[in-house]
Design goal:
CATH architecture of the largest domain: Orthogonal Bundle
CATH class of the largest domain: Mainly Alpha
CATH superfamily of the largest domain: Cytochrome-c3 Hydrogenase, chain B
Radius of gyration: 22 Å
Order of helices and strands: EEEHEEEEHEEEEHHHHHHHHHHHEEEHHH
Shape: globular
Length: 505
């Protein structure tokens, strides 16, 4: 099977579609299974796209050791509605096959959990609706079910959580999402304005505007041809690290709030405000919207902005170190964090966990390190790795990453000062390379973001696919609360802080 996949040496390197092997499904099945049996590999995306008279399936598998991305495909006519499921052999493929099933009506034989994911408006089976979702059930007079959502008491997005409990102990949690499918991927395909696509990318998940915006711009630049300069790459990485710092500090506040440690909550809330106000000082928007554009920027960094970033980060770093040293040494906090909501390394691998969810289970999943992009190609990142897999680990890794991101921003600004600082304005009239396919991977604060697209013979986008890290990690949350008290769910949920809208594209 030496010619059974195409290979990219670099993240976001485009390919001619004709160079992606289209395999018979049995050969595709064997090759994907063989690749994913290697723990160094994981699937960054597997999805189907409609073509003339057929459905074409693309699978992208990243090798975290040799930094390559392997791409293979299979194709079926519209009458082929049953395929052998990969999930029994490769459990992490469960969510991708469920999405294909929902979007195209393809049955995956022996799939253990073939249920809807998002309820898109154009799904082929309109009888599958939110009200008849097939929740898992256990018949017993000793058990009871608890439903939470989709309308929540706090300011939170819609999602339904169905618990099966024995007294206070959770035996099983099933998470039903899909309440706000917005047709984002179809809009990327249908919009004719490049600027509109940029704005759309920033709206996929509001807490990851910089990351999703960068994934989109990097993809467009890949399909358009020209490389962007060193200065712009550095500035983009600074923006990405500021976003990481802001959300990690905000999440630390939320964790403190859930265990009634008010000093930690209000201190971290104040520090997060300083970070996002610094972003606003740079580009006029606290969440970084407008900062990332293909080919250039409307908000180039200058000495005044750089000094403001460094001054604020130095202050934030000192104060955040001080409060986190208190948070993670306070017995009342540790009692609510330690050994709560544990995810094992094997569970992380089986669910395909990415980002800090994986890194708290001893699994190195960080695109900055394994498949470097932008200036990370020249600036090695050593991600923090923990192995306890509990709420405490998911809290502490945030403090470690904030400290490391502040150091990275200092180094990047030092490097930026050595560049020529020449950056052009954004380019919105690129001619995209025809009959091509590209994958763009970005490490957002939550984990691995993947945007991919294919163009037709005229260079028009014929399909566009988005994967937010939450698509992988929701199952890890469901596993984390097993055998926990139901009262532990809020702090477990906050420790992951997964995205509803990132899942409900």
């Amino acid at each position: 099977m030496n010619n059974s996949y195409s290979e990219t040496e670099n993240n976001s390197l485009p390919l001619d579609i004709k160079d992606i092997p289209v395999l018979r499904y049995p050969d595709f099945f064997d090759q994907v299974t063989l690749l994913l049996k290697n723990p160094a590999n994981h699937c960054v995306n597997y999805y189907a796209a409609a073509t003339t008279g057929a459905v074409k399936y693309f699978c992208c598998i990243a090798d975290d050791i040799d930094k390559k991305i392997r791409i293979l495909a299979h194709e079926s006519d519209n009458n082929e509605q049953i395929l052998m499921s990969l999930t029994p052999e490769c459990p992490s493929m469960h969510i991708f096959e469920r999405e294909i099933f929902e979007n195209f009506g393809v049955e995956f034989r022996d799939h253990p959990w073939l249920k809807p994911v998002r309820y898109p408006q154009n799904r082929p089976d309109r009888s599958r609706v939110m009200d008849n979702y097939p929740f898992y059930e256990i018949e017993s007079e000793e058990l009871h079910e608890v439903g939470v959502g989709p309308v929540h008491a706090g300011v939170i997005e819609p999602g339904h959580f169905r618990f099966i409990c024995n007294g206070e102990k959770v035996l099983h949690l099933e998470i039903q999402l899909g309440y706000q499918h917005r047709g984002i991927e179809r809009l990327f395909q249908d919009l004719n304005s490049s600027l509109q696509r940029c704005i759309l990318s920033e709206s996929i998940a509001g807490d990851s505007s910089v990351a999703h915006g960068l994934a989109h711009s990097q993809l467009i630049e890949s399909l358009a041809g020209p490389d962007v300069g060193e200065t712009l790459q550095i500035e983009r990485c600074i923006g990405l690290e500021l976003e990481r710092i802001a959300v990690h500090i905000g999440d630390t506040a939320a964790l403190c709030g859930d265990v009634a440690y008010q000093l930690g909550q209000v201190t971290c809330e104040a520090l997060r405000t300083v970070v996002i106000n610094t972003m606003q000082f740079w580009c006029g928007n606290r969440f970084g919207k407008g900062l990332i554009r293909p080919g250039g920027t409307n908000y180039p960094l200058n000495d005044t902005i750089a000094e403001e970033i460094l001054k604020n980060l130095d202050n934030i770093g000192r104060r955040f170190d001080r409060i986190t040293s208190m948070i993670y040494s306070l017995p009342s906090v540790l009692a609510r964090f330690e050994d709560i909501g544990t995810v094992t390394k094997q569970q992380a691998l089986s669910t395909g966990a990415v980002g800090m969810t994986a890194r708290t289970c001893g699994v190195l999943r960080d695109i900055r390190s394994t498949h470097p992009f932008q200036y990370y190609k020249y600036y090695p990142v050593s991600p923090a790795i923990l192995d306890a897999g509990d709420v405490l680990a998911r809290g502490k890794i945030r403090s470690l990453e904030v400290r490391e991101s502040i150091r990275i921003v200092h180094d990047l600004i030092d490097q930026w000062r050595r560049t020529n600082r020449e950056i052009g304005k954004p380019v919105y009239d690129y001619n995209l390379r025809p009959d091509s396919y590209a994958v763009s991977l970005i490490e957002g604060w939550r984990g691995e973001i993947c945007h991919s697209a294919a163009t037709d013979a005229s260079g028009k986008i014929m399909h566009y696919k988005v994967k937010d890290p939450s698509l992988h990690n929701w199952m890890a949350l469901a596993l984390a609360v097993r055998d926990q008290e139901i009262s532990d769910f809020p702090v477990c949920n906050k420790s992951f802080n997964l995205s509803y809208c990132g899942n409900d594209l």
